[in-house]
Specification:
homotetramer, about 250 residues, alpha+beta, Gyrase A, domain 2, four-stranded antiparallel beta sheet, elongated
Amino acid sequence: MSENSAPQFHSDVTVELVRASAEDADVIFAARVSTQGEQSLEADKMEGTKTEQDQKRDRGLINYLMRDRHGSPFEHNSMTFYVQAPIFVFREFMRHRIASYNEESGRYRELNPVFYVPNSSRNLIQTGKPGAYEFHPGTAEQTALVDQQTRDVSMHAYEAYQRMLEAGIAREVARIVLPLTIYSSMYVTMNARSLMNFLSLRTKREGSHFPSFPQREIEMCAEKMEDHFARLMPLTYEAFNLNGRIAP
Amino acid sequence: MSENSAPQFHSDVTVELVRASAEDADVIFAARVSTQGEQSLEADKMEGTKTEQDQKRDRGLINYLMRDRHGSPFEHNSMTFYVQAPIFVFREFMRHRIASYNEESGRYRELNPVFYVPNSSRNLIQTGKPGAYEFHPGTAEQTALVDQQTRDVSMHAYEAYQRMLEAGIAREVARIVLPLTIYSSMYVTMNARSLMNFLSLRTKREGSHFPSFPQREIEMCAEKMEDHFARLMPLTYEAFNLNGRIAP
Amino acid sequence: MSENSAPQFHSDVTVELVRASAEDADVIFAARVSTQGEQSLEADKMEGTKTEQDQKRDRGLINYLMRDRHGSPFEHNSMTFYVQAPIFVFREFMRHRIASYNEESGRYRELNPVFYVPNSSRNLIQTGKPGAYEFHPGTAEQTALVDQQTRDVSMHAYEAYQRMLEAGIAREVARIVLPLTIYSSMYVTMNARSLMNFLSLRTKREGSHFPSFPQREIEMCAEKMEDHFARLMPLTYEAFNLNGRIAP
Amino acid sequence: MSENSAPQFHSDVTVELVRASAEDADVIFAARVSTQGEQSLEADKMEGTKTEQDQKRDRGLINYLMRDRHGSPFEHNSMTFYVQAPIFVFREFMRHRIASYNEESGRYRELNPVFYVPNSSRNLIQTGKPGAYEFHPGTAEQTALVDQQTRDVSMHAYEAYQRMLEAGIAREVARIVLPLTIYSSMYVTMNARSLMNFLSLRTKREGSHFPSFPQREIEMCAEKMEDHFARLMPLTYEAFNLNGRIAP
């Protein structure tokens, strides 16, 4: 067995911002081209430190763009995240087509035995109808069952994976027995418009015009991405929340 | 346990064409708008049965569009496939962003115990460097090992899944222990241009300008889709092959 | 001069539905795959004539999908329109990226002298601030001025175009003097989800959650497309209107 | 008349790189995630100055990705250009759907009288069949005719535009008489993969696998964008040229 083979279990996801060229000013300049010539733009750049009035004007413009759904000014920027999460999260993530993905490949490398296991804060019980599920904590017994079954299946499957690799089976074949709990990693690049669409569907934070019922684990990714977004583009983020968390 | 719980193992994939509005004539009319007025189009429709000369002209036009990479005339058509394949195939499939997907959901329904197991025709041994892997048959022992491990892990995981469901655990939680061998089903809709791009990357048929090294199982899907495409749009398919199997 | 050269002036746009594979049932089957196995789908197809209860269930499902913004089931369908409109409309139209376009080309053929001129029902006066413009009828004098200037410039420019063609200048060069009033024609293919997005931005019909301020001439196209859509997919159209005319 | 109203005529286009987050290293890190864990990536970053061997390895990896059409690693980067060109160029430009656009709006501001006129280096005569046109210089008389007609029509149309604005006609109506020669400006954002696709179709430089026949004026834009790209991502650009100038 490889030196990596001692199984690890985690209950969280990792999101790092590895590259960003994204600020509120990128929205402003793109929007201004509609209404001004280049000279004004140059003047705007030369202004130096922004006055309070400038900021108020910028906030107003961004809020107006969001409200009237002028979406394209929110596209001239770019954020790249490094995400580590179990495969069942990536399955949902990659349904979002306005993004760029590169994921670790089980065809090119041997996968590490790192698995997701729900911890005690994960609601385990579901009530209600499709489209309006509610989730509640499990009992101590239920929590213990999920923990034990998840660990057991993950280790059992990984042993089979190792056994096949040792017998000379191709990685792309051996990996098919691995469970959806196994962690993978990827780079994902999005612009702010696409990210707001992602957040509108993959979080259920308050203030949203439309209900969303994301699975908790992808919401954990979305919340971490949202924190980076809020810090990089505070006025855009504020306008997103003010306008019902609907992407323009 | 539910009545569906007797595990089944399959070694193939299913592709049904459930809806198609796609023929070579759709390429012709879209291309002709560039060079003709509507009257010519109307005249073309009124022509009735096509002469041999018409067909030669159509073949020539489609071949010219493909060769010079005029891609847009190949987009005014639509094919919907119903695909049943293991989840590890869907993971690769959904990386193709110019398509529409709806997949069976383990959040809304209990999944059936239907699993993929490689059969004896599946090459199990990989040689060569990344980007130029070659695959060869395994020995009888290797084949038996893969068969036995895949069945064992799949059944073991499904039992854990059932055990959690019976204990009242939410479907979206219990399903995380299932292996990548489990079958899922989806509808996928593409136009001919997008489908040709898919085929160029997910088959390694002869005549391709650029090498591709698809995993065999997604290639099995691609080949079945290709058969439908070849039948629906024979001139387009012929031009695709004549021009190095590169999507325009 | 060519036989086509007598200038024509029109004040309307043409939208023909030339190809459609789009009905409410396409939404239903795509959504059902999430929750049912294929057998149920087959059973659904075999049902024959739908009962009143079936229709109520279908209407409820489509409304639920729209409300909760499950957008992908609205993508497995396809509509192709033949549109004739002035170039300034096509400039706005082609900003919509989730669609397929093939337009008449001034590089490949000599363009006909067919021009748009606003008629008396076109509001000519604009008041209010950007983002909240209101439009009002012009005076008789203003109306006459617009009519006269538009005809004059269009004919003047077309004469220059003809003069250059006659002198042997390439079509792609001569055409650059033509005005934005000249009509062009194109095929455009969209699915219902993309079309609803288009309608939400290019009409200002009542009941919309968000304001839109489309230029009247593209709205004329949008309204004709909307009529086709309403007829092809009545339940989807109803749900679109019930849910604030926001695409899912 | 406004102070901007003295007509100007230009024969070139402007392309400024206003924002870029795009280097060869962005391709490398995205590709490495497939084959390495994060630790290796971290180690790679810590390496400090790259040795000659590192550079050779990077060049080899990028060339391999291009050759085998692994396209996604070329998407984790972003370039924003400010482009000034006549409207007939923008009409072609915006057919490229994998890009973000914000253009100056004739609805929100009065347009300046800046017009394109072909200069003496612009080939005016076209020979050959569609798909294989060749262009040749015009005679002195032809050149003079094009120059004179273009200037005349542009000024005539702009006067009508001014006349309508002065009479109180809405900008969005008055502008419809303007010719395709009028300059507009826009911001366009693309990633390297999309830009390579654009270049493959809008330049006819040597070494291309497939022929392209772009109109000269959009090719002028493309060539300026290509210069920026070559400087920002030299290894990627080299691999693009080595592999037939086909986007992966």
